[in-house]
Amino acid sequence: MNRRVWEVCEPHSDVFARDMDLSMFAASLHAVDAGTADRDYTEPERFFARTFMTRSLEDVLERVLARLLGQPGRGAPILRLETPFGGGKTHTMVALYHAARHPEAVEGTGAGGRILERLELQNLPRGIQVAVLDGVGLDPNGRTVDGLHIRTLWGELAYRLGRKPLYEAVRASDEARTPPGQDRLADLLRSARPALILMDEVMHYLAKARAVRVGETSLSAQSLAFLRELTAAVAESAQTVLVLALPASALEVPAEDQARAEELFQSVRKVVGRVELVETPVAQDEIFGVLKQRLFRSVGDDRTARRAVEAFTDYYENFARFFPEGIRSPQYRERMREAYPFHPELVDLLVQRWGPHPQFQRTRGALRLLALVLRRLWNQRPGSAYLIQPHHIDLVDRHIRAEVVRLLDGAFEAIIAGDILGRAREIDRELGGEYRREQLAEGAATGALLYSISSGAERQGCNEEELRVALLRPEINPAQVSEVLGRLRSGLWFLRYRDHRYFFTARPNLNKVILDFEQSIPDERVDESLHDHLLQVAGPARSELQVLVAPGDAEAVGEPSRATLVLLPLRLSDPDEARAWMARVVGRVTSRNLLVFLAPEKTHEGALRVAVRRWLALQNLQKSRTLQEMDREDQDAVREQARDKESEIQALLFSTYQRMFRPAPDGVTEVRAILKRDGKTLAEAVAATLKEKGLLIEALSPTYLAEVFRVRERPVSLAEVQTVLAGSPDHPIVADPRPALQEAIRAGVTQGQFAVRAGGEVFTEHVPEEVLARPDLVLLPQEAARPVEAPAPAAVGAVLRVAGSGKNLYPISKLLEQLQGKEASMEIIVRDSSGVLTQRRDELERLLNDYGVSHEWD
Questions:
Q1: How far is the C-alpha of 627 from the C-alpha of 629, rounded, in Å?
Q2: SS3 of 327, please?
Q3: Residue 240: exposure state from Cβ atoms within 10 A (0-12, 13-18, ≥19)
Q4: Could you identify which of 31, 171, 635, 718 might form a hypothetical disulfide with 37, taking C-beta atoms 3.0 to 4.6 angstroms apart as the criterion?
Q5: What letter does residue 649 receive in the DSSP assignment?
Q6: Is the whole model's pTM more than 0.70, yes or no?
Q7: CA 191 to CA 131: how far, in whole Å?
Q8: Residue 267 banded pLDDT, cuts 50, 70, 90
Q9: How is residue 334 annotated by DSSP?
Q10: Which are the contacts of 807, defined by CB distance < 8 A and separation ≥ 6?
Q11: 677-682-683-688 Cα dihedral, nearest 10 degrees
Q12: Cβ contact 699:563 at 8 Å
């Protein structure tokens, strides 16, 4: 099993200091020379023990020492160290300072042994004079020391190389603040050799010296002239080396405006340009060694590092389609091994992406930040920290957060708190499981923020592949990142997604703007809009059903004249309440068989209200000035979201109304079915489903009438047929009963299945249109419509008296069935002592009236 970095590696103890002094990573040549810097810089042996000897640094030491020794043809008189802030310039100069002042500290290192071998020496040179001219530490108004008032760079140079005696050689020039000239400087250097001159932060001094007037010019101009004379004097002086540290661009020059900074920068480059030898103190992948040497006492054995790298390499191979191709190359695998315990992506982020930022000092800045990250990591001990990756830059830590915010904008303090430590964390909690345990949403949001730090807008942010490299580690499914990013895009307020890249800005994104609009929408407006959307989804566009949408109460459902779909109000999402509501409707209407109900699901109302509120906000936003102030992409996104949200509302409503009910003898019964949308309205989908089940018909056949109502055996009134079809749940639903019944009667008469009588007139072959609409129409057997012959003698009649109870009604019902259509009269007396007749009186009244049965209550 792979071991976590906090189990294997041991950072230096100062990383865990309660109040870590981050200035220990910010070397100051002036403070080193004054003895006030951190011990890591002032103590030579300690400094070299914590210094990773890069190829460039070792080469600089060798050539400078060779020049100071006077070895012919070796070393250049002037070196210009030029990298962006934090690129190792000052660290290189501190190394030269200690090598010159304390050569024994270098001799005891591996690099010292190699340098001695190449220089063919037993020992490094002693007695080298060192002059430190640090532009940050020097005051252009001068200083008083050893009874002298030194006013200029040349005065400082003379005093630092030879104290009072050498200062006297340039006293007049120092007091007049005019350079002594090349020849005098050359004489001074010959007197002091071997001499090493270290000039750091020259631009800072020149910028400050602009305020000191010297005749018609300034001390800055005089100092620039001195620099020109000094470079010429050093070039012709043996055993003398001048090392200058200059910024890589005018962006790093402190000046009142960029134009002045550029002017000053170009002036200095012109002065030293002809005699320079540019050095890059830290090569690209040597930064791995610098960071490890400075931050760790031990990083474990090579076997542990190899196993961790193999685990990541196998992981990238197994999920190749989720990661950049280059990350699976042998070269990248070697970089991972060299970078251990860091992931190369973390170092590349800090050095390459953050490095050009004017507020980030490359190696120095990386050391400061990573020291804080290590302290947090070792305190928290996360379970999957096999390498230290970008997502380990934990913004919960206020010190880490301060380092990051410093490179962005003060507003990002609140953005981090709200979007990353608030909303992204909530997404992890909602997703639960591995998402929450590994903090994938928070880590992805952190990664997007870290990649947002850049000096060039063209590289702002990161794509999904880069984010996976920054976030994922073995045993985590890469597909989870897509789920997380989708939620971050819709849930965060300052995260943007442009051209397949994720990045943060200080300007709120659409999510925040829309949310502000949402908060101004009252609940009543949501209710109205929800009802409007329900009307659209309900139909009927081309449905056989008429629709009644969300009636206020059961009493609002009137007597239907044709098949009617009733959509219950959304508030009736409780199944018991919905059934009781539908039972009340069924109990109070006669044509109950014409009703179909759709009841809402219990869990969908909240999601619907959220979606409708968002849709309303998008509608309001499209009508506002705010939309006009947005960029084109955001405007298009608003319109697209409005369309998508409308579709989402319709889909939600369709999935909400899936429970279908029909009337039953004792209330309602559920029709088990899944409504298929397929572009249909609810009414169309219900109609299609009922047809598939044979529960909804558009036409009646004459045969159906003849057989179901036994028209061949007895006369049947139109009222009876209408009442049974509309009121009995045992029959299919006729979409529109009146025209369907008229057409069936017309066809039945034409086909000779039965005849029709209306107003004393009998029709046996054709029924006029006006007759079909008469309420007194009766269907007759064809035999009953033939001419009546003389009646036969009446058979001897009989009288049958039957008595029984409610427990033996079956034989009585069979008896009545035998008498159906016969010329028999009957009188039924029902005596009830249980109160059932009284309780159901209204229902029984409707039944008897519907079928035209005379009755009276006693």
A1: 5
A2: helix
A3: buried
A4: 31
A5: H
A6: no
A7: 14
A8: confident
A9: H
A10: none
A11: 30
A12: no
Please enumerate in sequence order all residues whose Cβ is within 8 A of that of 770, keeping only pairs 6 or more positions apart, or say none. Answer: none
Say if residues 729 and 665 touch (Cβ distance below 8 Å). yes
Question: Which tokens go with 329?
Answer: 């190359």
Instruction: Using the predicted structure, report yes or no on whether residue 456 has a pLDDT greater than 70.
Output: no
CB 771 within 8 A of CB 756: yes
So what's the pLDDT on residue 303? 92
Residues 729, 717: contact at Cβ < 8 Å?
no
3-class DSSP state of 696: strand
* Structure tokens, 370: 């990573």
* Residue written as token pair 């002809």: 274
Angle, CA of 668, 854 and 663, to the nearest 5° = 5
Token reading at 375: 């302290």
- Asked if 440 and 480 count as a contact pair (C-beta separation under 8 A), the reply is yes
Answer yes or no: is pLDDT of 844 > 80. no
Residue in the structure block whose two tokens are 């209200």: 609
Q: How confident is the model at residue 22 (pLDDT cuts 50, 70, 90)?
A: low
For residue 796, the 8-state DSSP code is P
Closest CA to 192 of 234, 142, 145: 234
On whether the CB atoms of residues 245 and 199 are closer than 8 A, the answer is yes
Radius of gyration of the chain (CA): 48
Structure tokens at 301: 């054995």
pLDDT on residue 672: 92
DSSP alpha helices (H): ranges in 623-692?
625-629, 632-656, 682-692
Kindly tell me the burial class for residue 464, based on how many C-beta atoms sit within 10 Å of its own C-beta (0-12, 13-18, 19 or more).
Answer: middle
841-850 helix and 718-727 helix, angle to the nearest 10 degrees? 140
39/88 Cα distance (integer angstroms): 18
DSSP state of 731: S
491-493-494-498 Cα dihedral, nearest 10 degrees = 50
CA 337 to chain centroid, in Å, comes to 32
The pair of three-digit structure tokens given for residue 792, joined into one six-digit string: 């036969």
Residues 404-426: pLDDT tens digits? 998 888 889 999 999 999 999 99
Q: Identify which of 226, 220, 224, 223 has the alpha carbon closest to the alpha carbon of residue 207.
A: 220
Q: Note the pLDDT of residue 790.
A: 45
Determine phi and psi for 519, rounding to 5 degrees.
Answer: -65, -15
Predicted confidence (pLDDT) at residue 793 exceeds the cutoff of 70: no
Tokens encoding 466: 């880069």
Q: Is the peptide bond before 341 cis (omega within 30 degrees of 0)?
A: yes
Query: CA 356, CA 774: separation in Å to the nearest integer?
Result: 94
The angle at the Cα of 418, spanning 470 to 638, to the nearest 5 degrees, equals 85
| Cβ atoms within 10 Å of 486's Cβ, excluding its own | 11
Average pLDDT over residues 688-711: 92
Q: Is the model's pLDDT at 32 over the cut of 80?
A: yes
pLDDT at 499: 87
Dist CA 275 CA 110 (whole Å): 31
Question: Measuring CA to CA, which residue among 341, 322, 494 is closest to residue 417?
Answer: 494
Across 96-104, average pLDDT: 92
Instruction: Please answer whether residues 688 and 673 qualify as being in contact, where contact means their C-beta atoms are separated by less than 8 angstroms.
Output: no
pLDDT at 817 > cutoff 60: no
Contact in structure between 175 and 223 (CB atoms under 8 Å): no
Q: Peptide bond before 103: cis, by omega within 30 degrees of 0?
A: no
619, 624, 627, 629: CA torsion to nearest 10:
-170
Q: 153-156, long-range: CB within 8 Å, 24+ apart, which pairs?
A: 153/205, 153/223, 153/226, 153/227, 154/179, 154/180, 154/185, 154/226, 154/230, 156/131
* Residue-level pLDDT at 827: 72
